[in-house]
Every structure is written in structure tokens, then in C-alpha cells.
């Protein structure tokens, strides 16, 4: 394939779940499962390894408000366990699950855009 593709920003493609190279094909084949390749341009997604990155960001930024809500309910109202489950449970699900897919898409698109790959140890030869 000799086609050249424009540099697409990771925020533009990743958040929408689109191919980081062409911006047309789908990045996911399920909720969080990456497709094997782009159906539009054929880019192989085997380079992508976001690992636990999306979960880390969700834990750092979305779970904190859930915990603060639970603590506030307990301190201000001495909320029962049932109240905690019925109020903080849905709040936690709504703040933790929806951001996972856009964050994973953004991380995969960023890996492609910045040509990120696993680090390698480079050893100098003796005498150089």
C-alpha cells in the first residue's frame, strides 16, 4: 500500500474509536476488545498495547468522586448500607465504565501517532 495518510491527532481518532491512520475504520470489535485490523485501510492493530492505562486513569479521576460521595453520605447523613449501595453504586458505574473505551482508544491512537514501542536496552561494544 503506497498511500500516504495525513497525521490525525490521537484525540480526534481515539476518543471516537476510529483507526489512528485513516480515521475511518473501527478500532474496536467489542466494548473494549481491539479489532485485529482496520477494515478501511488495513492497519494491523497488533502494535497496540494500552495495558492497564485506561483503568489507571479511571481509578485516578473517576473513582475519587465516587469515594468522596460515599464518605460525604456517611458523614453528613449516617447513610445506611442500602442507601450507600443504591446511591454510590450507580454513580460509580456511571463514572467508571463509560470513560474506559474512549481512554483506551486515545491511548492506542497515541501509541500509533508517537510511534511508541517497547523500550530496548542498547549496550555499547567494548572499546567504543
Automatic annotation (TrEMBL):
Q: Where are the transmembrane segments?
A: 55-73
Keyword terms: Membrane, Transmembrane, Transmembrane helix
- Asked whether the UniProt record includes Membrane among its keywords, one would answer yes
InterPro entries xrefs = DUF983
Q: What is this protein called?
A: Uncharacterized protein (DUF983 family)
Tell me what organism the protein belongs to: Shinella granuli
